[in-house]
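Need residues for this backbone.
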């Protein structure tokens, strides 16, 4: 069957000729590859019926802290048609909190903050507990918003540990929230 690979980035920067995907299928029983696949550059090949058609899970320029990843695994060739894969640009973000002034009281394991972000388009990711000296690292979608509780768990009517600003647009691998 004549099949086409179609790649698109669901969120983040588009893939291109220097950051691309390689597609795979079987032709007469042997695996063949097609590249470069990226946004706006579909490729086709004659592929065996009822055999796997697949792509690289991550793009050619992906690293251990910045990647374009698909959640869709291999598909099965059943007709001469277009097979689609969506990718997400993501950063492996290390999040920390620190006091805005060295004279402020520090947060700790019993008085901490919780931050929440998004990965894979809609999955909520929690960073907790965040306190002075305890950072947490997880994957987040590029361009998504990471928000943090404006006050710590130990805050009360007598004393407050307050974060400002309490949100950040994900565009790098590190972010520190400052509290007062």
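Answer:
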């Amino acid at each position: 069957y004549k099949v086409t690979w179609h790649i698109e980035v669901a969120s983040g920067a588009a893939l291109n000729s220097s950051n691309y995907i390689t597609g795979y299928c079987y032709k007469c029983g042997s695996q063949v590859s097609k590249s470069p696949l990226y946004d706006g550059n579909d490729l086709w090949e004659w592929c065996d019926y009822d055999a796997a058609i697949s792509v690289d899970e991550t793009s050619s320029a992906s690293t251990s802290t910045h990647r374009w990843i698909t959640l869709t695994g291999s598909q099965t060739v059943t007709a001469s048609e277009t097979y689609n894969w969506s990718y997400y640009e993501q950063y492996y973000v290390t999040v920390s909190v620190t006091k805005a002034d060295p004279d402020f009281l520090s947060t700790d394991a019993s008085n901490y903050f919780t931050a929440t972000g998004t990965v894979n388009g809609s999955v909520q990711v929690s960073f907790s507990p965040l306190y002075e000296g305890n950072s947490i690292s997880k994957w987040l979608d590029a361009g998504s918003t990471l928000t943090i509780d404006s006050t710590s768990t130990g805050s009360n009517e007598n004393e407050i540990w307050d974060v400002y600003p309490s949100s950040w647009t994900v565009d790098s691998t590190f972010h520190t929230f400052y509290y007062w």
